[in-house]
Write a sequence for this structure.
């Protein structure tokens, strides 16, 4: 199982060489053995997943058609609603919340005959870059258990890297798929905003959030995108397929992009560690050998991206999290004296420190007298950043950058310094502000044997080209085939 990709396992299950039940048992055994150390899962659905695997095996044995993920064990980040198990967002305020419906992406996984083995840990309400902000447990990096897995999709990323599932879903508001993928040495894709339905995703920053896949390689990411992409009438920001046609993302994935023009941004190098700079430079040289033309481009408003993001994201968080009031659902304080205490004490007891910080920042930015000075100005900067990318993509097909300025840092290293933590997302945030797709894939290792991630960005709704460009690099390297030592123990 350790050697198989999701596609290979899917094909073996369909061919009858292995059953979904056998594959699911293997994954559950791996979770039982290793997750007490890794801490990737908040909940594991052992009985339910085995029953579902048996149902899929019956369909295959009877010669019935099965979906694209026929019997493959996958995981879902615990900020996506499921009718089975709790939907906690790794927060005490939702610790016992059971959703009345499935998120659109969960429905699509089930329709594709996936086996959902569990829900993974995250920074509370997806607010963080290390999964240290989870109120429920600590997830560690499978490559070095003293280090963070990244965030906020650290649980999904660690589960894939630790072979505790074959693929997983995460969400990306400012880098929360790509950054943990980079830290854990796997592939993570943030699709274009609107490509995948957000219906049933517990909102953090509604104009920034996007669900996407994490997997061991580019092809498995393409398979997962095939399953979850598409218009959803329940999501008003979901893009109509007439305006952004869907395609089979696996089709032609092995076909190199001809006359490929790759943009590099010289000012990006200054913020990254030397070993990361060297790995990115080596990757660019490989693309040169594959016939790509390398063009220096300018993204002049990049330096304002973090400031703009933390105005827009916190303002939207302040609005979205107002619904957790101790009345409708979620945690409610005991024995309040009046309705004001119901609201204030429930939120005080239920929210963690980082969530409170972001709510206060956002509420301040939206308050009377400060709206124009902060929030409105941030929206103007966001438009400038979007225009920078539009101009750049007139010259190039894609842009290559580091995913992160450093490799995975030590647990506790940045937790008391929010600014340094926010800077961990310096290369990923601008793609969310612009709404464009980005992918992270492994491109090397540092002296501590920690994975180094490369980010590739593409124009809106050009995921197919983005995946093909990523596959060009992956097919000539073996970084994605290396495994953390913990899974061999």
């Amino acid at each position: 199982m350790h050697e198989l990709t999701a596609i290979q396992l899917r094909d073996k299950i369909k061919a009858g060489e292995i059953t979904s039940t056998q594959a699911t048992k293997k994954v559950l055994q791996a979770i039982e053995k290793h997750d007490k150390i890794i801490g990737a899962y908040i909940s594991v659905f052992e009985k339910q997943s085995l029953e579902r695997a048996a149902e899929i095996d019956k369909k295959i044995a009877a010669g019935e058609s099965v979906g694209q993920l026929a019997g493959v064990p996958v995981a879902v980040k615990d900020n996506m609603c499921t009718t089975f198990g709790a939907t906690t967002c790794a927060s005490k305020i939702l610790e016992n919340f059971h959703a009345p419906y499935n998120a659109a992406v969960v429905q699509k996984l089930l329709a594709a005959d996936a086996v959902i083995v569990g829900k993974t840990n995250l920074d509370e309400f997806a607010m963080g870059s290390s999964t240290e902000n989870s109120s429920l447990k600590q997830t560690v990096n499978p490559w070095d258990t003293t280090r963070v897995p990244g965030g906020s999709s650290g649980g999904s990323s660690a589960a894939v890297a630790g072979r505790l599932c074959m693929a997983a879903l995460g969400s990306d508001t400012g880098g929360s798929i790509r950054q943990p993928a980079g830290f854990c040495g796997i592939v993570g894709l943030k699709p274009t905003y609107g490509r995948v339905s957000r219906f049933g995703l517990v909102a953090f920053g509604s104009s920034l959030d996007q669900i996407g896949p994490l997997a061991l390689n580019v092809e498995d990411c393409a398979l997962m995108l095939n399953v979850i992409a598409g218009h959803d009438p329940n999501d008003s920001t979901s893009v109509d397929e007439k305006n952004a046609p869907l395609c089979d993302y696996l089709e032609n994935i092995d076909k190199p992009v001809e006359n490929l023009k790759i943009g590099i941004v010289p000012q990006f190098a200054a913020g990254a560690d030397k070993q990361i700079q060297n790995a990115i430079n080596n990757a660019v040289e490989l693309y040169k050998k594959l016939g790509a033309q390398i063009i220096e481009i300018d993204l002049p408003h990049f330096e304002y991206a973090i400031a703009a993001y933390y105005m827009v994201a916190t303002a939207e968080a302040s609005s979205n999290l107002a619904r957790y009031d101790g009345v409708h659902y979620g945690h409610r304080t005991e024995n309040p004296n009046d309705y004001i205490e119901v609201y204030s004490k429930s939120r005080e007891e239920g929210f963690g420190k980082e969530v409170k910080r972001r709510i206060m920042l956002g509420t301040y930015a939206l308050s009377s007298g400060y709206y124009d000075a902060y929030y409105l100005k941030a929206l103007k900067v966001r438009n400038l950043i979007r225009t920078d990318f539009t101009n750049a993509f007139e010259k190039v097909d894609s842009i290559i950058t580091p995913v992160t300025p450093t490799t995975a840092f030590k647990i506790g290293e940045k937790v008391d310094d929010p600014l340094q933590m926010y800077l961990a997302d310096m290369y990923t945030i601008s793609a969310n502000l612009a709404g464009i797709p980005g992918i992270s894939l492994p491109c090397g290792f540092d002296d501590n044997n920690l994975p180094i991630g490369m980010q590739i960005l593409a124009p809106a709704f050009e995921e197919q080209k983005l995946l093909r460009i990523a596959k060009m690099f992956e097919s000539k390297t073996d970084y994605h085939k290396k495994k953390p030592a913990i899974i061999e123990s």
In short: The chain has a mean pLDDT of 96. Residues 371-392 form the longest helix (22 residues). The first strand starts at residue 41 and ends at 44. The domain at 6-233+242-256+474-488 is CATH 3.90.1300.10 (Amidase signature (AS) enzymes).
